[in-house]
Amino acid sequence: MVSMIYDRWGVKIYEWDSESGVWDGHTTTVSLASNGVYYFILNASSVTGDVIEEKGFVQLISEL
If 0-12 CB within 10 Å is exposed, 13-18 middle and 19+ buried, where does residue 4 land? Predict the structure, then answer.
């Protein structure tokens, strides 16, 4: 199942297809994403086989 991160303009900046995937604040081009609010869609399967989809927002704040 594919999970994705989008910027505020709706451009997909990161994607992973494993249930143990994470987003470390970098884009698919390996550059650090700018501070701001990002939209996420997380897809997973439960232990009983049910498909789970969660959507929401996350704010990225870099200390650099």
Answer: middle
- In a 10 Å sphere around its CB, with 0-12 CB exposed, 13-18 middle and 19+ buried, how is residue 16 labelled? middle
Q: Which residues contact 45 (CB under 8 A, 6 or more apart)?
A: 1, 19, 51, 52
pLDDT digits (tens, 9 = 90+) for 4-29: 999 999 999 999 998 778 898 999 88
Residue that is written with structure tokens 């992973």 in the block: 16
58 in Cβ contact with 38 (< 8 Å): yes
d(CA 34, CA 26): 9
State what percent of residues in the chain have pLDDT above 90.
61
| DSSP element (H, E) containing 37 | strand 36-45
